[in-house]
Amino acid sequence: MKNSTLNFRHLYFFWMVAKEGGVTRAAERLGLAVQTISMQLASLEQSIGKQLLEPQGRRLVPTEAGRKALSYCDQIFLLGEQLQDALEEADNGKMRLTVGISDSLPKLIAYRLLQATQTMDTQVRLVCMEDEFENLLADLALGKLDVVLTDRTVRAGGSLKVFSHLLGESDMKLFGVQRLARKYRRNFPESLHGAPLLLPTRNNALRGRIDAWLVERKVRPEIVAEFEDNAMLNTFGRNGLGMFFAPSALAQDIEDQFGAVLVGDAPELREHFYAISNARKITHPAIEAILNEVHSGLFSYTAQDPD
After folding, report:
1. Of 273, 248, 279, which Cα lies nearest the Cα of 262?
2. Are 172 and 109 in contact (CB under 8 A)?
3. What's residue 92's pLDDT?
4. Strands 261-277 and 147-150
């Protein structure tokens, strides 16, 4: 293998056969003869010295070596598709920004940040992917994403070569539907003892700070539910299942979109927002527009210069 040149055309045929589950279906999709696909698959397996596909009933499925090869093919050909899209958009005077959005980041914050890309002189095509933080970092390191927007920094000493840029921070407030707000607004935060709360799960950066805030005030609320996804948490809050914390910058949006009103201020609680990139210095024009939006003071949270 090390002494041979990998034929990417053959590799692409393997990828299609593995995805389609058979040579015939892959040939139909590619508009090629079955014999052509079969011959080139055989050439690929001969060149690398490993069997990549084996029959299972009426289907062809990857062997152990084939599954490993398939995971690399997914990365290779996804990047190839992105390259073609980027070149086409460049010809049309457009710019592409592929953004990973952490599932714990308030979606309204993500929207406000990304809104800056739509006021640029160059038209920006946004491609937004939502996932767990670790998965997004892996995709960023592989070049599938241009930037990750999240509520936490990258752990120092990690194996991934990515960099955290602090966008800013916001103090927090507690929100709830009118019924809950009327009941628990008086004597806040002491009133939260036994009160129904919706909280992020313990792997969320904010959760530890909320727990410490509650302990310091010697209140023990009833934790009704915990969520990894911030949008799901807000949805349950909108339906009155419990009260929830959110950045003060979003107070009006939360009232408008979720019908939730202010229960009490928690200025000691702060949420941080980061842009994670592959480079220590941001160079992508669309990401620079996001940073400029933050630094212009259009948000109520305090913006800081990135690392």
Report:
1. 248
2. no
3. 61
4. antiparallel
Residue 112, token pair as written in the block:
């406000």
What does the alpha-carbon distance between residue 258 and residue 108 come to, in Å, rounded to a whole number?
12
pLDDT given at position 307: 41
Residue 159 contacts residue 234 (beta carbons within 8 Å): no
| Contacts of 251 by beta carbon, 8 Å cutoff, 6+ apart | 173, 175, 262
Q: Is 117 exposed, middle or buried (0-12, 13-18, 19+ CB in 10 A)?
A: buried
| Residue 85, pLDDT score | 65
For residue 159, what is the DSSP state? S
pLDDT for position 170: 86
**CA 198 – CA 186 distance, rounded (Å):** 19
| CA 215 from centroid of its chain's CA atoms | 31
Backbone phi, psi, residue 123, to 5° = -70, 130
The residues near 268 (Cβ < 8 Å, ≥ 6 apart) are 171, 213
pLDDT of residue 3: 46
Residue count of the chain:
307
Residues of the chain with pLDDT under 70: 1-5, 81-93, 156-159, 293-307
Whether 99 contacts 148, CB under 8 Å: yes
Are residues 105 and 170 in contact, defined by beta-carbon separation less than 8 angstroms?
Answer: no
pLDDT of residue 1: 44
Q: Which helix (H) or strand (E) holds 127?
A: strand 123-131
Which pLDDT score is estimated for 257? Answer: 86
Lookup result for tokens 């210095």: 281
Distance CA 27, CA 64 (A): 24
pLDDT for position 306: 38
